[in-house]
Amino acid sequence: MAAPRQVERPLSPHLQIYRFTITMAMSIIHRITGIGLYMGMALLAWWLIAAATGPEAYAVFLGVADSIIGKIILFGFTWALCNHLLSGIRYFFWDAALAFELKTADVISWGAAIGGIVLTVIVWFAAIVLRGVL
Amino acid sequence: MSNQDMRTPKAKILHLGSARSGTSDHVVQRATALAIAPLSVFFIVSVVALAGAEYDTARAYLGHPLVSILLIALIGAVVVHMRIGVKITIEDYVHSEGLKHYVLLANSFFSYGIGLACIYAVLKISFGS
Lengths: 134, 129
Fold this sequence. Notes:
The structure holds two protein chains of two kinds. By secondary structure, chain A is an all-alpha fold. Chain A has helices at residues 22-53, 55-66, 68-95, 102-129. Chain A is built from four helices and no strands. The radius of gyration of chain A is 22 Å and the shape is elongated. Chain B has one domain: Fumarate reductase/succinate dehydrogenase, transmembrane subunit (3 helical TM bundles of succinate and fumarate reductases). Chain B is elongated. Chain B contains five helices and no strands. Chain B has helices spanning 9-13, 24-50, 55-63, 65-93, 97-127. The interface between A and B is medium-sized, with 34 and 36 residues.
């Protein structure tokens, strides 16, 4: 009787088998920043509720927002928003069946990735320069 | 029994098959994104302007009717957008049918709860305490 033959069956490829592409990375980052912004909406609610409650509550919010941890979180929120915004614009092109050429898709994806970082730096630079302008 | 219906009797009693709403999430997600894109630019500019502002200044700015209206529009669009975004993520990764429905419910509660809190706060600021 012949021994049962071990058949090397092909497995469907998983994530690590694929070559890195910026479109793939930005797709994953788009979802991660979306979830980050989702949780960050609690901070927007806190800010608005604090402003609606009174000066003491607002001072507590400002104290946390001005701390190192608060600044890191707000910086992260800013980047998530800028990245998600620019990254999201690409989907309108793709929905219109535009920018599907590999080169074009790569260019707009790199543009969104780099643009998100640049925009974040500009926003924080503006916030620091214009601090207390109103 | 209609000859047009391709579904098997078993599929029908299990409520399987097309619910005729397959593209709804996609279309609403893009529509809200279109609203959020310009409104979020307004939001970023507002927050930059208010950085380091006193309580009275922030309150006066947020309470201006135009600012309040734009903020409420932004929050309304964001609530719908964030709920759908996380809904499709849950549907992608939570495979247990029972658990999935509770997680989806928690997503709706969180999204609408955030929306309610934000809009109430803006209205309170705008109408005065």
